[in-house]
Design goal:
Protein name: Mannosylglycerate hydrolase MGH1-like glycoside hydrolase domain-containing protein
Mean pLDDT: 91
Largest sheet: 4 strands, antiparallel
Number of domains: 1
Pfam family, one: MGH1-like_GH
CATH architecture: Alpha/alpha barrel
Family: Belongs to the glycosyl hydrolase 63 family.
CATH class: Mainly Alpha
Structural class: mainly alpha
Strand order of the largest sheet: 3-4-7-8
Radius of gyration: 21 Å
CATH topology: Glycosyltransferase
Keywords: Glycosidase, Hydrolase
Distance between the termini: 50 Å
Low-confidence stretches: 456-482
Strand content: under 5%
Number of helices: 17
């Protein structure tokens, strides 16, 4: 077992260079011309929060391509402001992925919600990490970003995205965004959803075909029963025109990870607004209000972490009930800059304590409670370690002054990426890779951590780009997407 005092050795310069080249090859190989697929076989379309993480890494390879990654995703934004979790590639056969475009029927079923007519998408969303990604992408090359008018183009879309979450998804009425499908918080089959999902009648077994099992091991993937429930929820939403006011939302949960990224991105919007000579105060005030609501609604002093709130479970004053299960999402509020210090200290103890064991039992943060009855070290989001979660934790640790712990985690992530051929996720005990290989966000976040690993000091800040951004200039033809 690793010791909490163990520091993973920094990769030698030659190894870092080899790892960077390998990560670049993955991203180049998964680039489709205007965006990047997570994996050609298992995930052959564009995914929302994947693209945000991919852009964060792409900025070190090609800032223009990173900007295009974000722009392409936001071109599929709906009229009501939502950013769909999948943007479908018309060139990919319908049977390559399920649910496919003919299941979602976004351009017709979502017409009342403003779904685009020229591209097919899903109807649900994913965590709002996009504004943070846009700011980091801009920061990589502010002059090119300004010349292309990148921030000026994406800012209104990101504002509309956040407004959608605030206006349409505050289902609990206390200021937090709720997720209405297990795919929305990104941690699809987390044990935290077992209780809320148990109330959902699954779709008939013969009514859908699981393309994911063609390329993945069944034991590592969600069960057929859970998948049937996913399909039922998505069909229910579709059949109500994806209109949040009309849909019953049989599954409605306030998730701490989703809202933590909402907070981080609201602060990023403040920086973008300031760079565009706008007024950042409104964004900062909304971030502060979200932080206050997050603490009031989801903090559990007994658990020492944030918990999910099931809005459909019977509870006092019909206000739902906290889910007692411990997921890694409950630690992600460390990315919120203004979290009260006593809560930060409690979260830091939980990170390395018996339930998550970072630095004591495991080298990378698992996605679920090591001591939980539902923990499964191999099965998707029920235990394995994920690179994006650990990247976010590394950022949160550094933000709250835990530079040494952040350095150790960064080194462990890089070693795992090198050993696992950029695996989708890992056994948190052995580091053995599972899921897809040459996975895009693993490669992208490896690039980002390598860029910071090469900085003169471990605490060197991210690039700043607070200079005035001029009015957008015409985009050169050579930099436009095909």
């Amino acid at each position: 077992m690793p010791s909490s005092s163990t520091v993973a050795p920094r990769l030698p310069g030659e190894t870092r260079s080899e790892l960077r080249r390998a990560a670049c090859r993955v991203l180049v190989g998964n680039w489709t011309g205007r965006s990047t697929v997570p994996s050609h076989e298992l995930y052959p379309h564009q995914w929302s929060w994947d693209s945000a993480f991919i852009a964060i890494g792409l900025r070190h390879l090609s800032p223009v391509r990173a900007q295009q990654e974000m722009e392409t995703l936001l071109e599929a934004q709906w009229g009501d402001g939502r950013v769909p979790h999948i943007v479908f590639n018309r060139a990919v056969p319908l049977d390559a992925y399920f649910p496919s475009p003919d299941f979602w029927r976004s351009s017709s079923a979502g017409a009342a919600a403003g779904a685009p007519r020229t591209v097919e998408t899903s109807g649900v969303v994913q965590p709002p990490v996009h504004a943070l990604a846009a700011w980091l992408v801009h920061s990589a090359d502010p002059r090119t970003s300004a010349r292309r008018g990148f921030l000026a183009r994406v800012y209104p879309r990101l504002v509309a995205w956040h407004r959608y979450l605030a206006d349409h998804r505050d289902l609990g009425g206390h200021g937090l965004a709720a997720v209405v499908h297990p795919w929305e918080p990104g941690m699809d089959n987390s044990p935290c959803w077992d209780g809320p999902l148990a109330r959902i009648e699954p779709a008939a077994a013969g009514s859908f075909r699981r393309a994911d099992l063609v390329h993945g091991t069944a034991a590592d993937r969600p069960t057929d029963l859970d998948y049937g429930r996913y399909v039922r929820l998505a069909a229910e939403y579709r059949d109500h025109g994806y209109r949040d006011a009309a849909a019953p939302h049989s599954f409605a949960v306030e998730d701490p990870g989703f809202n933590a990224l909402f907070i981080a991105s609201e602060y990023a919007l403040a920086r973008i607004s300031e760079a565009l000579d706008g007024d950042p105060d409104g964004h900062r005030q909304r971030a502060a209000a979200l932080t206050e609501a997050l603490v009031a609604r989801l903090w559990s002093p007994e658990a020492g972490q944030f918990l999910c709130r099931d809005l459909r479970a019977p509870g006092p004053d019909d206000d739902g009930r906290l889910v007692s299960k411990r997921g890694a999402a409950g630690l992600l509020p460390l990315v919120a800059p203004e979290l009260p210090r006593p809560i930060v200290e409690s979260l830091l103890r939980t990170v390395s304590g018996e339930h998550f064991g970072l630095g004591t039992a495991v080298r990378l943060l698992p996605s679920y409670d090591l001591r939980g009855a539902a923990f499964d070290r191999y099965c998707y989001w029920r235990g394995p370690a994920w690179f994006n979660v650990n990247w976010l934790l590394e950022r949160g640790l550094r933000q709250h002054g835990e530079s040494a712990r952040a350095d150790t985690l960064r080194a462990e992530v890089l070693h795992a990426a090198a050993a696992g051929r950029f695996a989708e996720y890992l056994d948190p005990y052995t580091g053995q890779g599972h899921g897809a290989r040459d996975f895009s966000w693993t490669a992208a976040l490896t690039l980002d951590l390598l860029a910071r690993d090469a900085e003169p000091t471990a605490t060197a800040p991210l690039p700043s780009a607070s200079a005035h951004i001029p009015a957008p200039a015409p985009v050169p033809a050579s930099e436009k997407g095909p």
